[in-house]
Amino acid sequence: MSIAPAQSPRSLHVLGVVCGLAAGAWLGAAEAPTKLVTTGLSPFVISLGMVAGVFVARWTVPMALKGTGYIWMDLKEKPHLVIWAILAGMLWAVANTLTVFAIRDVGLSIAFPLWNLNSLVGLFWGWLLFNELRGAGARQWVKVLGGGTALLIGACLLAYATTQSAGGAHRGSTMGILAALGAGLLWGTMYIPYRKAYISGMNPLSFVTVFTFGELGTTMLMAVLFHGGTDGLAVELTKAKPALFWLFLGGFCWVIGDLFQQYAAKYIGIGRGIPLSNTNQLWGLAWGALVFGELAALGGNAQAIVLVGSLIMIVGAAAIGMAEAPESEQAAWRQAMDRECNRYGMDPKRVTAIMQGSDPLAQETPARQWWEGLVVVVALGIFAWLGSFATRPPIHFEVSWAAALGSATLAFLAVGAVMLWRRTRFS
Amino acid sequence: MQAPSFPGRGPEARLVVGSGRCFVFYWVVQDLEVTSLKRSMISSIATDAHFWVPVCVLILGTALLAVLR
């Protein structure tokens, strides 16, 4: 396999922006299975079902794209990042559980924008720890900070409009707000390990393969703790059996979105990558309103608020998309990379090449093994088995809108995957 | 090794204690056998200020979860 030539910063910026937007589309699509909460399933079981699907996909997709030999060599080359990846998975799981409490106490409409503050948290850590936006001019600051704030304001407006639709019925609670803010803090901090891995030259596909252990282990622990032991959890899982296929499917969509998010964090940094992937709220709203008819009872004012909020979010995403890191900021990024190389004994030239989209490791890895195909078949078999006893949940579902949104989401996948392959060979 | 009983404690407590033991077994007992390279790596991680930021946030989040429960 040939190494992709080193890319110009501009082409890598465009690639990162496309990945961030594709992440938003796929993470938004992954929210659709949360509708199953309305059918009476436990939120913990829904979370566990999705994470189990995520676990299957996180092993299968990287192996199918790069092979186990590549992943294994990448991990052996940077073993210190294994603990970072597990830590990131644990942060994700605790944050995800906090969102369950936040939704319970203050409702999704208030909780969602609060935990979307993770983009500002990530922006802060990116600036403080990884030299992001250091040396960037005032215009770049305005674009990134202004864009992130616009996305946040848009999110608040969408949430407000949704609250009108739900009649504003929720239990006001300081603890719920704290839980949502806590989730935002944890999810924003989760990007520290992400960025750490990528300025060390690790492939996002290798990172997520380890990340998933921290994620699944912690989620299972939470589910057992909150269901009074393994027996209680087993009873809940049996009740959820007909819905497990949909949860696995949601987990699969989430993995695709997260992979794009990881590539965005690698090529444009977390300060720019996270706000772009937070456009998932826009997609989540589109799925909720158009496919599940959630906003059918919305009045004219609320509809106008949804429109304005959506437009503000699009403007915010566009501002960040145009905030390409100038050469002075790129130099600051390289300083952060050199610091990692010095601390962990890595070759700066090799890491620089990887950061520019090259893939030297691809030339050194052993040939693919026959059993890798078998793993893919087993993963598909799990989906087919779950599908064999899946039932359609008793909820409103607009097929034509689902097809339209599904097509748009697949288009993002196609464009993002082709760009990643052509420019980086999924490096 | 036979797991001792925990009078008056539920399965959750046993699970937490058991997980903690596994963690200690891996990172302490196995560590006696690690090569100098691994020791150097662990030392580099432990002295990396960046590492303790997510660790502290994770502890904070877990504590909040315990309160909410």
Task: Please render the helix and strand layout as text.
The complex is a heterodimer of chains A (427) and B (69).
Chain A lengths: L8 H21 L13 H24 L1 H10 L3 H26 L1 H8 L2 H13 L7 H28 L8 H16 L1 H8 L5 H23 L3 H10 L4 H25 L1 H8 L2 H12 L8 H22 L5 H18 L3 H8 L14 H19 L10 H26 L3
Helix pairs in contact in A: 1-12, 1-13, 1-14, 1-19, 2-3, 2-10, 2-12, 2-18, 3-10, 4-5, 4-8, 4-9, 4-10, 5-7, 5-8, 6-8, 6-9, 6-13, 7-13, 7-15, 12-13, 12-18, 14-19
Chain B lengths: L10 H19 L6 H11 L2 H20 L1
Can you give a write-up of this model?
The complex is a heterodimer of chains A (427) and B (69). With 427 residues, chain A is mainly α. In chain A, 76% of the residues lie in helices and 0% in strands. Chain A has helices at residues 9-29, 43-66, 68-77, 81-106, 108-115, 118-130, 138-165, 174-189, 191-198, 204-226, 230-239, 244-268, 270-277, 280-291, 300-321, 327-344, 348-355, 370-388, 399-424. In chain A, helix 2 packs across helix 12 (244-268), helix 2 (43-66) runs antiparallel to helix 18 and helix 12 packs antiparallel against helix 13 (270-277). Chain A is globular and about 55 Å long. The relative contact order of chain A is 0.21. Chain B is mainly alpha-helical and 69 residues long. Chain B has helices spanning 11-29, 36-46, 49-68. The longest helix of chain B is centred in the C-terminal third of the chain and has 20 residues, at 49-68. The termini of chain B are far apart. At the A-B interface, helix 4, helix 8, helix 9 and helix 10 of A face helix 1, helix 2 and helix 3 of B.
Helix content of chain A: over 70%
Average pLDDT number of chain A: 84
Number of strand elements of chain B:
0
Proportion of residues in extended strands of chain A: under 5%
Q: Assign an overall shape of chain A.
A: globular
Distance between the termini of chain B: 33 Å
The string of secondary-structure elements of chain B, in order, is HHH
Largest sheet of chain A: none
N- and C-termini, Cα separation of chain A = 12 Å
Residue-averaged pLDDT of chain B? 72
The major sheet of chain B is characterized as: none
* Total number of beta strands of chain A: 0
Q: List low-confidence stretches of chain A.
A: 1-5
Whole-angstrom Rg of chain A: 21 Å
Oligomer: heterodimer
Helical stretch count of chain B? 3
